[in-house]
Structures are given as structure tokens and as C-alpha cells.
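User: We ran a pulldown and think these components assemble together. Before we commit to crystallization trials, I'd like a predicted model of the whole complex to look at. Sequences follow.
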Amino acid sequence: MHGVTGATSPVPRGLWRDIRSMLVFSAKRLLALFLTVLVGVYLTIYIANMGGQVDELRLVQIRGTVGEEVRADPAFFDLPAAERNALIEERVQLEVERLRLDQPFLLRSVDYLQQAIRLDLGRAEQMHSDSGSRQVYDIIVERLPATLLLFGTANLLVFFVSVFVALALSRRYGSPLDRAVIALAPSSAAPAWFYGIFLILIFAFLVPMLPAGGMVQVPPPEGSLAYAASVLRHMALPVLAMFLGSIFISIYSWRTFFLIHSSEDYVEMARVKGLSSGLIQRRYILRPTLSPIITSFALMLIGLWSGAIILEQVFNWPGLGTLLFQAIGHRDTPVIIGSVVIFAYLLAITVFLLDILYAVLDPRVRMEANR
Amino acid sequence: MSGRWAQGLAQLRRYPSAVVGMGLIALLVALSIYTVFAIPYSQALDLWRGGEAWRMHPVNARPVWVDRLAGGDLPRTQVIASDPSLVVSEAFEGGRQKRIELAFDYDSSAFPSELNLFLDARFAEREPFVRMSWHTPDGREIHLGGRRITGKDRVSISQDWNLERRLGLVPHVGLLAEPGNGESPVVHQGRHALVLDAVLFEEDAELDASLAVYGRVHGLAGTDHQRRDLMVALMWGTPIALAFGLLAAVGTTITTLVIAATGVWFGGWVDATIQRLTEVNIILPLLPILVMVGTLYSTSIWVMLGVVIALGIFSAGIKMYRAMLLPIREAPYVEAARAYGAGHARIILRYMIPRILPVLIPTFVTLIPTFVFLEASLALLGLGDPVLPTWGKVMNDAQAQSALYHGFYYWVLAPAALLMLTGLGFAMLGFALDRVFNPRLRNL
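Assistant: Here's a predicted model for the assembly, 815 residues in total across the polymer chains.
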């Protein structure tokens, strides 16, 4: 613990030391996370290939479509069978070369990997973006805002509502409201999509007041204000589903944190000193509990990234999750790998931000890292 | 150690949520055990495959109790088989003439959902011929035409277009309607009969017939679009969900725990490797990979279980366990064990892991419903096990058939309720356990 000497040194030196150690810490974490993403993405590519099974599947598919094309083309109607087969064979070969299926997987995988890391995700084999681009990057970037909009809104809502409600509850624990929240906490065992189904049943079928799915009405309304209103209406149910799915457990766990910390000796001391309850809440309860709060926020984010697939599927929300699902249906490997790479990057960014925040909030973390 | 468990259990009884949770779990376990004995595994798979076994069941019938609670009197399914004592048989040169009357009382105020006639003829060479007519309670006779019987035949009266044109209504409505009500038919209650006049062209030819008057309600759970009784899936879904949840929770927790303990005990590069692997694993998105495996490889529930456990081995939990195990490594009793010459495996498995087990019990219990819902999620995406009847697959079928749109709410609500009960049961118990085994929370 060489932080002890720092306590007596002048403030600027301490600040400079802090910044330097933060930078070293961030660089180390960034490097470690980069390596992690590298390994993670390679594993994904490896799994996506399923030990060569996917290649065979695609070969059969190519043969089928090419054969169909040649047979349906009037220009080749009076070709003898042998010649036609040779033509089909030749075209299959061309397609195989285009998709580079003739090269060994190991070679292709290394290639895929370095492209994926540079976010050069290549061309989709079957799918294309709404604007017509065949670039996987374009396809994914087109869908990303939808996912970010939905999940960003829901997460921030859950985060802030639960922290403030939990703070309020921790001040009068044991009250009927507090007991009600504790009793409701187990309801979060069900995921958001589960509540989504009920919400669709109630608000789209029994009392038809909100749309059952989609992101904007068809055809999209003219004018940006009407457009935004339509998106808001479509967002209401999925956001509510996510809110219901995690609000009670969040309130419960944060209330427990706050309760534990509000019974610490230093909080009692502050109370005895006669500090205002607002000040106690901010300086003596919130400040020391910030890092666990942020951890659970980030863990929730990580969990929600992957929960996105099903919720988006249930609400027919045109985001990353639905894209991944469609890509798998088309067996479009570049898109599958591309979306998983994006998922991995999003997770890595989340983890990195978490690390940095940790280091900012908790001096012990960065000291530990530099030892 | 055992004293601590007993003490914990005694404390648990003080929490109403724990009692309710344990009650729910006990109920589900009892239902599972009953199911496994009442419908053997192979039989359940056969039934769920659908087809002939369900031909006497109505399509999309709602549960009986739902209708009766709402004060309805929707009809149940009636199957009228030919009664040998009522068959009038008359022999002639080289064959027989047979008159089979299939009579039934119809007293519901709603029409049936479908009419099917099943004929089973056994003959050597010449196909028997049958002429069908419908006799209403007021003595009217409606001819349904005649046909040759080629063996086991199904006559779909409801899909007889000619008859429909003649009646002006779908046959299963028109045949049972009172005459003269036009577009808004009213059920003609009383004794209806389908009379078959058959000519058998051989001495020892046989003919059996049964008429299925499909109802609009069925059993406790209703039926789906393939006439399957949903009860089979609801019942069999229980042991499958519990087994999947339990195995996945045990598999991930135990392996994670052992690996965390190994890392802590050996330290150095072993620990470092485990830590790095954990970080890689946190980046790997579980659900997309499961979806990928499901679509490209196999949707067998056991493959899914394997992938879940394999990806769960180096889960984020390792970090937490590691923090708990680090001080234990230096504890005097572990040192004592080392002094008497205990091996690495013994110290890890017998000294370190049991020490933190009580703290993990709540996490473990709350983990089970997570996996139950994971299985349902996969099924909802259409990646359910191809042969097993599970709750998720029922919901997937319902969604594929737009059950909500058509108003078949029971189809979605029954499996959802069971999922919810499972989730609630384990979560309530887990929350209470958390307070018992983590003493810091107890005084709050």
C-alpha cells in the first residue's frame, strides 16, 4: 500500500499520480479486453462453422439454386443433358470460389477474424439492408439504432426509477409499500418477453389501444413529429415489458444495499452529528454504494443485450436480435458472425466502461492494478 | 454442519414466502412424478407426434371449465360407435344388407365444431357400398349420398361441398339446425341419428362405423390445432422443465465452483488462465450461440443443456466464488489438512467447497427458473426439442397459429401460468433462503 504516503503530499501531485495510474490501468484493461474480444470472436467464428457442417449445408444449397437457375433459363432449354450438367458444375464452382468454400476453414477463419476485428464484416451472402446494401456492416448499422433506442430507454428508466424508489424505501423499511415490493421481487424470475406476451394480449387484443408489434406504423407517417409519436406508441409495450421484468428485483436489491450501508457505523456517526438526511443520503450512503450499483447496472446491460433477441422477436422489433434470427434462418454466415462480433464488442465496451468507472469510483482498484 | 442445515430449515418456516415457494415446488414435483408414471415417456412422445391417436378429438377446443365458469354450455365431443344389438342385418344371395343407426342426444345450444364418420370395412375382394342419411328429431330425413368403402375410411361430413350447397350452411351446422331460421341457425335439440344402409357383397364381410360429433370444449386443458390434448404437453412439460432447470443449475454451479476452487488453491498460472477464460466467456453471447447451435446443428434439449453448461463453466460467478474462497485458502483448518497430508483434490472438494456451499444455496435456487425460462425462450424462437412436449413449444405453436388473435387465450395462458408458478416457486424460496443463509440481511 504505497498510497499511504500520497495522503500527506500536496493535492496536485496526488491528482497527477491518480491520472497517471488511471491511464496505465485503462491501457492495461484495454489490451486485456482486446485480447479477450479476439479470442471470443474466434471462438464464435469457430462455433458458427459447426465443424464444417455449415459448409456442406451451403454447398447443397448452392447446388440446388444453381441447378434450378440453369434449368429454368429458356436459353439452355435445348442443351443436351451432359452439357447442361457441365454448365451447372461450372457455375457451382464459380459460386464456391466466390464464397471461398474451396479453401480450408483454418485459413478462412483467420481471414474472417482479422476482418471482423477491423469491423470489415464483408458482404452478406443472401441478405441486404433496407437501403439495398449487401455490406454486413451497413445491414447491422441500420438495425443498431432500433436496438439502442429500445434498450437504452428501458434500461435507463429501470435504473433511475429503481435507485430512487429504493432510496425512498430504505428510509422507511417495514412499511406496507416496502413489504409489497419485497413480495413482488420474485416476479422478476420471468424474463421480459414473458410479460411482453401478456401485455400484447391485454393491450393489443383485449383492449386494442397499442400496436402488437413493429417499430413504426405502415406506411410510416409523414413528418418527423408524427413519426416520433408512432415510434413512441410502438415502444410503449416492449419498454413496459422490460420495466416489469426487472423493476422489482432491482428495487429489492438496491434497497437491501442501501439498508446495509445505512446501518454502518459512519452513517450512524453522521446522524449523531445532526447532518441533514439529504446530505447523509448523498455523501454517506450513495457514494460508498456507487460501485456495486454500477456493477449491477452493467451486469443488467450485459444480460439485456442477449435478452434482446427474444423480446425483439416477440414484438417484431427491427433490431439486432431480429436480424440475427433472420440471418440464422438464411444461413448467412457473414451476417451471423457480424452480429455476434457486434454483440461481443458491445459487451466488451460495457465491461471496459465498468472497469474504468470502478477505477474512478474506488481508488483501491487502480492501486491494486499498479502494484 | 448438519446442525446448521436443520437450523436453517427451521428458520425458513418463519418466512411465509418460503413456505409458499416450497409448496409450489412440492406441487410441481408431485405433478412430475405423477406424469412420469401416468403417461410413460415413450407414450408421451408418440402422443405428441400427433396423427391418428387424436382423430376423435376436436380442433382448438377450449377447456371445459373455462366455458362452464363463463356460464356457457358448449358441447363436448360425442363419439357414437355402432352398437351390434341395434344393427339390423338381412342376408341375401352372396352377401348381406346392413342397417346401422348411429343415434345421439344433442342438448347443447351451440353447434358442434365438426362431423366425421369413421368406417371400417373388412372384406376379401368386393368393396361394400354404403348410403348415408341424417334423421332429425322431428322426423326429417336428409340424404348424405353414398360411397364405396375401401377399408378404413374417414368421411368428412363437414367438408362435403355438395351437402353444404344444399343446406345453405356448413354441414355440421345445417344438419343440426332447426329448419327455417335462415342465416341465424338455432340448434335443434333432441335425438339425431345418422343411418347407414350398407350392402356387403360377401358372406363374411364386416362393417363397423363410428360417428364423431366434435365438441367445442375438451378436458381440463383444451386441444390444439392438431387435435392434440394440451394436457399431455402441460403435464410432461413439468418434469422436463424441472429436469432442465435443475441439471443446468447443478451443472453450471458445480463446475464453476470446482474450477474457482482449483484456481484459488493452485494460484499462479492456473488461476491466471481461469481468470482470462472467464473474461473471454463473459464476452461470448450465450443466447445467440444457443440460437446458432439450435438452427445449424441440433435442437435436441440435451445438446442445448450441454451447450448451456459448457458456456456456463467459466461464467461470471467464478469471480464471486474466487473472492469468497481466497480467505478460506488461508484458514487454519485448511492448513491443518495440508499438515496431515491431504491431497489437492481432497482439500478442494472436502475442505474448501463445502465451506461456501450454504452461501451459494440461494443463488442456486434462484438460478433454476432462469434455465427453465431459457428453455422456454428457445422453444418460443422455434428451437424447441423436436420430439419433446414442453411448455415453450405449446406457446410457440400458439404463436404460430395466432392464438391470441383467434381468441384461444387458454392456449397461451395455461403454459404461461405453469412457467410463472415454477419461476415464482423457486424465486420465493430462493429469496427466503438468501435471508436465512446470508445473516447480514436477516436483521433488516
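Residues 117 and 211 of chain B are 5 Å apart (CA to CA). That may be worth checking against your pulldown data before setting up trials.

User: Thanks, that helps.
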